[in-house]
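note to self: dont lose this again. the chain is below, predicted strucutre after it. 231 aa total, dont forget to put it in the shared folder this time
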Amino acid sequence: MVEAVSFDIWGTLLDLGRYYAVVARRLSELTGRPAGELYRLVLETYGEALRARLEGSFRRVVLDSAEFFAARLGVQVEDLFTAVVASVEDPEVGGLAYPDAAEALEVVRSSGYRVAALGNVMFWPGMLTRYVLYRCGLLRYFHLTVFSDEVGLSKPSREIFDYLAQRLGVGLGALVHVGDSVENDLAGAVVAGAKAVLVNREAPVPKLRLGRGAYLVNSLRHLPEVLKELV
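---
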């Protein structure tokens, strides 16, 4: 029986590409570099950074990933940090939530499930992401928020899912994790012993069972019905 649902944040509830565009614009104002060029480089570097993080290259995750991005963008680390700080007050940040996010969170929470956010970080800390969730009107739906820089663990490790389940007061078998990454969210949760829902908004089907404890959906609006099937 499902008792708790955890959500990845960037790419699942919040649009990371749009946020990177805001950061690139703020960084352009600081450095005089074209915003479009910086945005392209950020997106290219993100894929490289994901691989580096999985390989354990970022021991000091926020600082090391910031140095990684700054080197590839050709900017100073302090300018990157300043751009991130400036970005959170940008008017566009309040609209970063996907259209299906608040509706799904409202239904899940009102259905009696324990609700958590579970996020890895790159070159900004989890606390900043909490603020973005607040700006988007989503923070109020969570009983618990867990970020990798604060607990010293990260997806897809079993340890972070163990930690999350313990904090929520449920067994791993009663936890469903929802996210957009095959490796970090789907595989990480299933290998740990939890259930998982993979979100791919470009999938040609509304929902698809991937196994006994896993589903694919192309919208969070299908999540409530999937939760009823993940017994």
